[in-house]
């Protein structure tokens, strides 16, 4: 387990319930280092100390696969992934950019791909996007004779993902401050762009033109954040929407609107897709438990990542995600672990 | 094209729009024999006469793949599929039982499987079920850590599929006649049973116990059938629901309720799945264009069926259905057609 946050804690329980042997845990936060991962995850002692020295953990424990959850963007995590791969470990990361890094960080992706091949390891990005935004949607698009446009909308509650995420969402700014921040900062690529590139790949279409808009989400009444214990007054920015538009050489336009903000009571994560073409198509996942499904997909992907060929293998190249009714190791191709 | 009904007509247009070369058409109905398939499909003359002698068409035209749409059950179509396979043709059929015949007609499926292998041909069942009931649902189930129960509900408008289908749905009977028919007739296996068996296969669960209930759908007010031009009075049977329940050795229960009846105005086909477990999951496809998607999936499966290994290969064993942006032949593995 590389990274010990909320996601790592939940995945720790899910893995132990599917008989995955956890051999090591890495985190830098001094308040976590030295603690037992099981106790950190509130499932009781499992004899796996959280350690700060990643290289030491990887070298001594030689894991078959690393579950990685630290930052979102490839430039931030390249060094960590490199370290894993150099020690021969497969990696499944919930870094959002890793879903399909070829569109936004092609050079780093190529470097990691070559390194992974050299060491016989696989790097894959999974998480909530894998089934809900990619595989369910591409399966739906497989029922189309002609696609004119694809529009997806997802919302998620930034309040459920910890203080670090909230700080990155411009929460608490005025609209003026938000515009200033947006104008002055060099924004990292959006995750929607990676998703749309993956969908283009899955539908055999060729991206031609990209556009990204950012739009603030503003509190319509006082809005309380449980995770940081602060109430933001009406009119304050409580998050934002990234709206990505991809045009393709073949014609169809893909739009994805992803809104992350602090939810009010009664709001829930959504995932909805509207396709225009022959025929018109629709998909809605109702109340989406994104928090949990980020972890379930991360964990359910373990055998696929072990079984996959070496390299940076994006989930559009993997078999569709499957339910794991048996202990996780029973899905691993016999003889593939050395 | 084996069978020239409403589905065959639509698929004919879809295929020509994806540059599929149609080489022959088979139907027995004397009012269709001799007509040009393109004219029958209302897309203009294409130079393909509808012929009654299936063997002659298969022997002279040697098709790479047969799109088959005659009856629903394997015992009814075994002879037709056998004929195709003996002539070395791959077959993709919308016979509902063929989605997963191993649960209901294992002996016939095994016979066809052996014959197909002997002749290097593939038989696959596709159609509406492929993505909407199987691949979208199994992709959703792939986000579960624990499944307790799966409940699916689909409705379809029997009025859209022609007179033969309506006659098989007990339409026009009184409730008493319906009960008598049900009690006296030996009912064929339900399609829901095949679907649940396919879902068990896709989730790695082991079916233990099966139960099927049939429940009439009764007109709550006068209900008009456009396809047969008859109005059925309030209280008349206008179709029925098949409710299939599958229990598994591992615990989870799967239920599928499929209701086919004559819709009233404002009603539309639906496809909705509710999963209880960790976490609870949900899927809804809104207004489902089942009529069109039966054909689009049938046609979009063509290259997968050609590319697949020989035998009776059910869609859970195929790659997920994909959108075809290019001419259909560009998805065929080079060199696989001899």
TrEMBL record, chains A, B:
<dbReference type="Pfam" id="PF01113">
    <property type="entry name" value="DapB_N"/>
</dbReference>
<keyword id="KW-0521">NADP</keyword>
<dbReference type="GO" id="GO:0008839">
    <property type="term" value="F:4-hydroxy-tetrahydrodipicolinate reductase"/>
</dbReference>
<feature type="domain" description="Dihydrodipicolinate reductase N-terminal">
    <location>
        <begin position="3"/>
        <end position="92"/>
    </location>
</feature>
<dbReference type="InterPro" id="IPR036291">
    <property type="entry name" value="NAD(P)-bd_dom_sf"/>
</dbReference>
<keyword id="KW-0560">Oxidoreductase</keyword>
<feature type="domain" description="2,4-diaminopentanoate dehydrogenase C-terminal">
    <location>
        <begin position="137"/>
        <end position="319"/>
    </location>
</feature>
<dbReference type="InterPro" id="IPR000846">
    <property type="entry name" value="DapB_N"/>
</dbReference>
<dbReference type="GO" id="GO:0009089">
    <property type="term" value="P:lysine biosynthetic process via diaminopimelate"/>
</dbReference>
<protein>
    <submittedName>
        <fullName>Dihydrodipicolinate reductase</fullName>
    </submittedName>
</protein>
<dbReference type="InterPro" id="IPR045760">
    <property type="entry name" value="DAP_DH_C"/>
</dbReference>
<dbReference type="Pfam" id="PF19328">
    <property type="entry name" value="DAP_DH_C"/>
</dbReference>
């Amino acid at each position: 387990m590389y990274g010990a946050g909320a996601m790592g804690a939940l995945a720790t329980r899910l893995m132990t319930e599917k008989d995955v042997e956890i051999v090591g845990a890495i985190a830098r936060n001094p308040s976590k280092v030295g603690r037992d991962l099981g106790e950190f995850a509130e499932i009781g002692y499992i004899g796996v100390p959280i350690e700060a020295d990643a290289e030491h953990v990887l070298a001594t424990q030689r894991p078959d696969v690393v579950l990685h959850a630290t930052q979102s963007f490839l430039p931030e995590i390249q060094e960590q992934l490199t370290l894993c791969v150099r020690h021969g470990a497969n990696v499944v990361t919930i870094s959002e950019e890793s879903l399909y890094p070829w569109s936004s960080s092609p050079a780093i992706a190529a470097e990691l791909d070559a390194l992974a091949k050299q060491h016989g390891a696989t790097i894959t990005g999974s998480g909530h996007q894998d089934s809900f935004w990619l595989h369910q949607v591409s399966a739906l698009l497989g029922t189309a004779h002609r696609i004119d446009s694809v529009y997806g909308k997802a919302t998620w509650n930034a309040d459920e993902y910890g203080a670090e995420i909230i700080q990155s969402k411009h929460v608490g700014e005025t609209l003026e401050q938000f515009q200033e921040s947006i104008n002055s900062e060099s924004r990292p690529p959006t995750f929607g762009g990676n998703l749309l590139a993956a969908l283009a790949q899955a539908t055999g279409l060729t991206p031609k033109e990209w556009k990204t808009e950012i739009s603030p989400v503003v509190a319509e009444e006082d809005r309380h954040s449980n995770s940081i214990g602060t109430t933001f007054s009406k009119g304050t920015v409580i998050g934002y929407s990234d709206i990505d538009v991809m045009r393709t050489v073949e014609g169809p336009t893909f739009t994805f609107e992803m809104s992350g903000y602090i939810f009010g009571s009664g709001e829930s994560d959504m995932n909805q897709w509207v396709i225009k073409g022959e025929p018109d198509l629709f998909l809605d996942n109702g109340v989406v438990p994104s928090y949990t499904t980020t972890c379930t997909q991360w964990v359910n992907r373990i055998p696929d990542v072990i079984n996959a060929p070496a390299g940076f293998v994006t989930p559009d190249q993997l078999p569709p995600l499957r339910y794991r009714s048996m202990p996780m190791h029973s899905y691993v191709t016999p003889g593939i672990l050395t």
